Task: inverse folding
């Protein structure tokens, strides 16, 4: 009887330990070293790419407080600083020397199929409209020593965004004074999907 109780206790403790450790992030960013973060690129005009980058950084830091992440700015500014014309292997090595980073995050945010929702009241008061959009976020973490891709992920979503300017031909300008309120749900959903390997589950 005592032996059965001991065995049962060991089994329970083992299961409990497994449950606790199974929630760990699949990728530990602390082991990667110092990581650079380049602002996301997007053909969408306005502040949405900058906002997406900040949300991405925020989620990473909250998920893994011990991660060392250095904001590097826009890709064109980084390339200008290291005198390169594209993010190839040599440029990555130059980034390692210039910024002291072991790896770098970069990504794209594509917005398409913009379907404006015209609200006369909002146009009169704020000169902006809301619109339903399709968005795709692709992110990548690359080793600066040899250009090896450490991780990559893509997320898609369709949501209504607010406080945008829509031009003839379907062009849209993301110029909200409060991006969190205007397109926060869209961006946060994309970021949470693409960063799931770094989050505790």
Result:
């Amino acid at each position: 009887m005592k032996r059965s109780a001991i065995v049962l206790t060991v089994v329970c403790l083992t299961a409990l330990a497994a449950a606790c450790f199974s929630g760990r992030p699949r990728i530990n960013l602390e082991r990667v070293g110092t990581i650079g973060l380049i602002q996301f690129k997007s053909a969408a005009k306005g502040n949405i790419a900058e906002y997406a980058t900040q949300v991405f950084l925020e989620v990473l830091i909250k998920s893994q407080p011990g991660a060392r992440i250095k904001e590097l700015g826009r890709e064109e500014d980084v390339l200008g600083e290291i005198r390169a014309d594209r993010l190839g292997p040599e440029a990555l090595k130059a980034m390692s020397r210039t910024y002291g980073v072991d790896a770098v995050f970069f990504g794209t945010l594509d917005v398409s199929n913009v379907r404006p929702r015209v609200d006369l009241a909002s146009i009169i008061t704020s000169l902006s409209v809301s619109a339903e959009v399709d968005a795709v976020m692709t992110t990548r973490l690359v080793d600066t020593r040899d250009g090896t891709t450490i991780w990559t992920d893509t997320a898609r979503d369709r949501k209504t965004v607010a406080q945008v300017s829509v031009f003839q031909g379907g062009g849209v300008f993301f110029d909200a004074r409060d991006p969190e309120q205007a397109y926060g749900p869209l961006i946060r959903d994309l970021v949470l999907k693409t960063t799931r390997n770094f989050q505790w589950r």
